[in-house]
Amino acid sequence: MHILTDSGPFALFFAFAIAHALADYPLQGDYLARMKCRSQAGNASEWFIALTAHSLVQAGGVWFVSGSVVLGVVELCLHWLIDLGKGEGKFGYVTDQSLHLMCKLGYVIVLAFGMMS
Fold first, then answer.
1. Could you tell me what percent of the chain has a pLDDT over 90?
2. From CA 110, how far away is CA 12, in angstroms rounded?
3. pLDDT number for residue 115
4. How many of the other CB atoms lie within 10 Å of CB of 115?
5. Is residue 85 part of a domain?
6. Prediction pTM value
7. Number of structural domains, the chain?
8. Mean pLDDT throughout 30-38?
9. What is the rounded CA–CA span in Å between residue 58 and residue 35?
10. What is the mean predicted confidence (pLDDT) over 10-25?
C-alpha cells in the first residue's frame, strides 16, 4: 500500500503488472506451464496441484505489492479460474493476459478509493 500513498495509482498498477510478469514467466517454469492444463497433466492431482501452485505464486505477488492478504486470496481464486478457462480452451492467450491485468486494475481501484485498507 505504500506504493499507492508514495507514488500514486499508476505506480501501484505498474508494480502489480511487474509482479504478474515475473510470476507468469520466469517463476512459472515449463513444468507448471504444462501441468496446469488438465489435458497435459498426468492425472487430476498433478493438474490441481500445478494450477494451484502457480496461482499461489501469483497471489504472493499481489500480497507483496498490496500488503493485503485479502487481495492475495482474491488473486488466488481469480487467477485459478482464469487459467482454468484458458487451459480448457475457453479463450486464448491475449484474453487470458487481459483478464489478469483487469484484475490488477480492479485491485488498484479498490485500494485507491479506500474500499479496503
1. 91
2. 12
3. 84
4. 8
5. yes
6. 0.94
7. 1
8. 96
9. 16
10. 97
Closest CA to 36 of 74, 95, 93, 85: 85
Residue 13 · residue 49 · CB < 8 Å: no
Would you say residue 100 lies in a domain?
yes
Tell me, what's the pLDDT at 1?
Answer: 53
- What is the number of other CB atoms lying within 10 angstroms of the CB of residue 99? 17
From the number of C-beta atoms within 10 Å of its C-beta (0-12, 13-18, 19+), residue 61 rates as: buried
For the chain, the farthest-separated pair of C-alpha atoms sits apart, in whole angstroms, at 47
Contact 104, 72 (CB under 8 A): no
Amino acid of residue 116: M
CA–CA dist 81, 115 (Å, integer): 23
Range of the domain at 20: 2-112
In the structure grid, which three cell numbers stand for residue 54, read together? 502457480
* Structural domain includes residue 117: no
